[in-house]
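Interim report, section 4.2 (structural modelling).
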Amino acid sequence: MKPRQVAAVSGLAALAVAVGWVLFVALPRWYAAGSLETVGPSTPDHPAERRIQARLFYVAEDGLRLASIEREIPYADTLVAQARRIVEAQLEPPPPPLASALPSGTRLRDLFVDESGIVYVNLSGEVTSQHTGGSLDEILAVYALVNAVTVNLPAARAVQLLVDGREVDTLAGHVDLRHPLRKNLKWAGPTGEESPSATVGMPGG
Amino acid sequence: MMRRLGHPLTARRFLATLPVLVTIFAVSSRPVPLSRASAASAPPRSPLDQPVSQGATRPSPEADALVVVTPEGRRVLPVVRVDGHPMVALDDLAALFRLAVREEPLAAGLSITYQGRSILLGTSDGLASAEGRLIQLSVPPTRQARRWLVPVEFIGRVLPLVYDQPIAHRRAAGLVVVGNVNVPRVTARAETQTRLVLEIAPPTPHTIVQEPGRLVLRFDAPAVELVPGPLSGDLVSGLKLGDAPGTVIIELGPRAAPVQTTAETAEQRTRLTVALSAATPPAEPERLGPRLPPEPLSGVHVDTVVLDPGHGGEDVGARGVGGALEKDVTLGVARRIKALIEQRLGWRVILTRTADQTVDLDARAALANNNKADAFVSLHANASVRPAVMGAEVFYLSVDEYGDEAGRASAASVEEVPTAGGGSRRLDIVRWEMAQVRHLQQSTLLAETIQEELRKRVPMNPRGLQPAPFRVLAGANMPAVLVELGFLTNPDDERRLTSEEFQNQAAQALVEGLARFRELVRTGRGPAARTSSGGLR
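Predicted structure of the assembly:
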């Protein structure tokens, strides 16, 4: 083979490799990155993000019960991820005149679900240390979380609250947290325009 | 070269498309059912098309039955346990109570009709509406093998709303009593080592047959509800329902000599005393158990009340806007109540703490249990994020939150344990943490009397009387209530709570409430010591 031929073949080979790389590596990579961006877990302000309506629970104006409202929260693919989104949204401050039943500063540390549908919600210590200490607020705090999870996720059978990763007897000395708690709308009275107990859980209702 | 590179490149390309495939699959399979949001993202489907079970709900082979007693006779209603919940087939109920059942896909529920009156039972949320009332069942109906199953509590809580005869679900006895059928409740307890007292309410004709090793009580009734209390020593080895309807069998221990029975009827109940004899009655400590009414034959009974000043020590409880601390208010009121009771009623009063000290929640109920208190009152002051919330409230334990644990606890298992000298004896076992379930009716009565007395003297919260899942009440093996005296986060309430005048008024109300409660129980106008239905609406 003459040197010119060698150069030509090498050039062709190099070109082929370059074209191949572009076709089979660079383009798919670019394409995959683009796809991931639109469907993967994304920031709340991303325009293409899928959102769902979730019913969240807050202290009503009269302070005696929970009022519920529907808020948009990010959609998630799995039960665990969706439960996490719901609890995170529940911990956000509500629009006035509603007030959060959970002490400010309370964060979701972790969340997991066992095979029997019990959702373990692990909260940061503020839920105890910043609590008003009243039994009424304690009931409302506990059931805001329990109802937010169980009302929006029918697959969530009950909620076990944990504080800083540990099982606790109570948050502030009253409400028994030694067992997973089921949905209980007794503390969620009518909101004025509608009764949550009459609409919750009725698909399409 | 291309050819050699072809394989890895194709694989890589395939891998690169994987996230897309996975995402498409995840979106279309919709693994997370979202109650309301799903309607927008997926075509609405009938709730009746839903799979038989949601989440981990799965039928278990474990099954038992309820006995339904009607004026026509006895029927057995099979009970299936689904994921621990006792359920009955709606078909069986329909046949038994002549109900018409229809699935209502549009209303997402089941329509159950009796003589023109309807119940709508939500299939996804277990919310029943009937005659203008909404009742939340602990679990929704479940479809199993083309039959709808509804929780057993449906019978006692929802069906009576539309049925033309009274229906009583006596949970502890596994009985459903329909119409005006007399099913006497027989409460047994050892009064002394040698004396067994059976209280029969309402009074019912009966015969007593003495057989070797046992006594057979045959009641003129289609069924009997037996409430076994603590038994004494080894003279009585067991107490159970006989195989024949309406019979109770008292099994006598090997050392029990012939017995004598006496009966006296008063106040809507018959008191049947069974006197046993033994050469040397063994000295055995009395077991935990209900102790009502007081024991007139074993010496003078002194009523005992345990008062529980909430919080204490490091646990300050709620904090007032002006700085008042819950732990101080509760101790102040508890001391006043103690002084008043000792002065006026002469009862024994024990405080769970007498100073500013930390006391564990379990230790509070344990103190009451160990002192065999007749009543337990936990004192608290409340707090709210809304400063306008004010007024006193009285709570008794709510058991809805405990689900089936409460049912099991109220059914108090009787277990046989071996004894030192061979043989066995039966013990009434109640799980410590759910001891309160057996006293719920009396606790409700106590909460009511205290609430009524408070209302006469101090400002009340709009929610003056309610059930709540309070930890300190769950373990109390006697009537128990929790009183929230007012809201420290309300400036007016805080001023009152720290004033001598208010504390005296509140103490007065609690003493009157306790005295009235004891009087009602003593005269038999209150509920029996152990209740059949742990469930409270």
